[in-house]
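Supplementary material to the annual report.
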Amino acid sequence: MPEKWEELIADKRARLAKTIPAEWKIQTLPAEDSVIDYPAKSGFLSAKELEITNSTATDLVAKLATGELKSYDVTLAFCKRAALAHQLLNCALEFFPDAALAQAKELDEYFEKNKKPIGPLHGLPISLKDQFRVKGFETSMGYVSWLGKYDTDESIMVTLLRKAGAVFYVKTSVPQTLMVCETVNNIIGRTVNPRNKNWSCGGSSGGEGANVGFRGGIIGVGTDIGGSIRVPSAFNFLYGLRPSHGRMPYAKMANSMEGQETVHSVCGPITHSVPDLKLFVTSVLSEEPWKYDSKVIPLPWRQNEEDIIKSKLSSGGLTLGFYNCDGNVLPHPPILRGVETVVSTLKKNGHNVVPWTPYKHDFAVDLINGIYASDGCTDVYRDINASGEPAIPNIKDLLQPNIKKADMNELWDVQLKKWNYQVEYLAKWREMEEQLGKELDAIIAPITPTAAIRHNQFRYYGYASAINLLDFTSVVVPVTFADKAVDAKKENYKPLNELDGLVQAEYDPEAYHGAPVAVQIIGRRLSEERTMAIAEEVGKLLGNAVTP
Amino acid sequence: MPEKWEELIADKRARLAKTIPAEWKIQTLPAEDSVIDYPAKSGFLSAKELEITNSTATDLVAKLATGELKSYDVTLAFCKRAALAHQLLNCALEFFPDAALAQAKELDEYFEKNKKPIGPLHGLPISLKDQFRVKGFETSMGYVSWLGKYDTDESIMVTLLRKAGAVFYVKTSVPQTLMVCETVNNIIGRTVNPRNKNWSCGGSSGGEGANVGFRGGIIGVGTDIGGSIRVPSAFNFLYGLRPSHGRMPYAKMANSMEGQETVHSVCGPITHSVPDLKLFVTSVLSEEPWKYDSKVIPLPWRQNEEDIIKSKLSSGGLTLGFYNCDGNVLPHPPILRGVETVVSTLKKNGHNVVPWTPYKHDFAVDLINGIYASDGCTDVYRDINASGEPAIPNIKDLLQPNIKKADMNELWDVQLKKWNYQVEYLAKWREMEEQLGKELDAIIAPITPTAAIRHNQFRYYGYASAINLLDFTSVVVPVTFADKAVDAKKENYKPLNELDGLVQAEYDPEAYHGAPVAVQIIGRRLSEERTMAIAEEVGKLLGNAVTP
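Predicted assembly:
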């Protein structure tokens, strides 16, 4: 007889709690809103473990590759810190330190025997969103009806990361359906922001955002179909890469709306620095993912593309567009200041920054929202209803039950409109280049209209999702923090529309004080090398080359 | 008041007839089945014009680039020969020698003034399938209801070819709907094979096959969603490239089922040699098509990929798989002999050729047939019925009116199955490489089960379409000709299934004697450089480096 959904949840919570060894259990949860300093203060981690987890992935793999560090020690440090992260932030759906430590040991033995690393990520723990299938573990993806499904096969990304030497230890939480930029599900509840439990960690890769933001992970792997890598990166003062579709493998992942191809979800890393993003991308590409996943383009790392940007840095500078409003929803004052900070910093350093007029972003956002709901939301409600669990309230704006499915010819019409729009956007890009007489290297824009948002307030996905519709490469760069002393609420603001009014009304200088502020750097399709290099420069100039 | 469809056709035929100047009109059509020698014998073309049209595109652009040849003369020669082709084969839907000669004159003036070519195709006439939009001309694509639609915008491919220096002079015929591998529509009727009017020129880029086969064109541009470049190439003893999706621009083309993205139609060249295929591809890529068409991958010509194959040729040889039966339909004896000829020739020349087991091609063919019909054929019958014209009989097997549309979730299921199948096929490819201990460079296979087919007999698309489902790169290589003296009909053949029985029964050594036989060389996705280099080697070894 099928169990009741509440029982399935209780069972899962009990199983999850048991994965944390007694010696890592926090006896009394801290009362403060922010737990970002907890690892340093709590005494759970040794000085060495703090040093490891406060490092960069690039440094760690260098030390693992020489034998200066052992995978076991690095893995243990991250397992401990992730255990704290989960207890404080509620960010894990699966946690398996024993398997991770066993895997680490094997890698150490390999190193001992062969005197060389097994691959570019030798011994490095990597944190995975709970869409990645890892043999022997459960993938629920926040659906109660999926609980108890243990994977017998692996996602291609996991297989290739494993070949590259990565160690797996945690699969992090997601919102029910994945289609929300906050992280809440009925199984474990809500994941919160390490900097303030009243703020969201973002979503849908929110468990990654929280875990990596807390440094319970050094590289987290998320997915993005409408902001799901970039929003958690932004809300946790991290770097995040949304590669264009076809750059990173996605085969054999769990997903909502599997087989939907009108707008593709993509995999990408969330880290504390651009070199760590690059480490991840180069490591995956070195495994030739196109020989495993038919959707991956045979495009190895193009160092020459990165070098084009580097050479511009040393002569003439970059040429960048920017916008601070997409014409649909005006960002909160901290975000407007964030864009302005980036623009003025770049200009001060000799770069050419010009206004970019967002081209029909209202059209783009409507189109992609229609795509998300094109099956009448049949797929997501099938998986919600299968257990009897309720839908989370956050999905009600985007995914309504029992709406009309698109007809096949309507879908083709949408797909044609999408393509035409993309082609028109490229024409605008070329026009700008003709005007300027040189390449437009990237565009700087908000990624959300708000700094790390208060719970249940995420309403407007358009800054992120318009870029998904274009399939442009985008890198999130952390900029600053909301500051009640300078980010005053707008008086007598005349909203552009009802949604804009709602979003603007949510701003409260006191409540948002200290919340992370980010921008995204947008490059043309499949411009990962160039766009990451630009993001690296922007981060450096802002003083955020490596975030805390 | 809307005109009757018969009147629209009569008007179009009259307009088309007028485009041929009186001095190029054939007074008495030849009685022979083959007209392949007509240009040389008829006296319409001067010796110089015969020399030009019997040349290769690679030679022509070299001479145009030094001023040794004028675009006007080259264009005039091809216009004349295409005029003959159309009168003999019925291959053009639009013919515009005046505009072409004016364009050629401008290019000659440019050369005169600047002492250099405008681009890599300076002054070269290029023949286009009637899906390409050229400003000022009509795109009917074989639908009566589209007659009278004159283009005010151009396909991106046309824009870029124009920038590269190409001259346009003809748009060639297609089957109604494009979804047939023979070329017949109600507007101008049937296009026939220059080698024998009783044979098909193939389809859907059949007008290209006939025109280029007759050397009324030197490079023809077709499209392929299920064999439409490759079959006309095969039936006319030509080379044809079906690039993988995303390599060549397709934006702003006319098409059936516009917006259908489950399996993409792609553009590619049809020529008499591999260097001419390469000339086309490198010329288009040099215009950076990815800056114009969002679906094009930023992948410039990779000389290093071609060089990998070249270096294998000089040490160790190629490693190739082959199959002569896909398990669904056994090819006719001339095709079986064609595959065997290629395999033995390669082996004799030191290459490693091993059997390849086609993986679930029955599944692939069923899946793609379902995709073609996924809108219940609404789109194609809308355009057929809009004028009242009847459907051609050839589409009845593939596209039936009033069948059930796929539901959105059914489509997603099909798309997921497609992806999984592609991933499984890649696994088989890797397994073979592991067995062999080296790279499997490509697979040799039939492209059709028959040599150039008799009219209305094309029944099985699976040799071509399974490769479209995989989105593998494929190059057709002409091999030999059916020979009644050696290609005996199989006695007491036990068919694999009903369709196989029908196909095998069609074979008649007498009727097919002399019909072109070809194979396809299949490479992994986006392997254009390598696969063309392999095709070039195969063609050379067969003695077909440049076909007549």
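Chain B has a mean pLDDT of 97.
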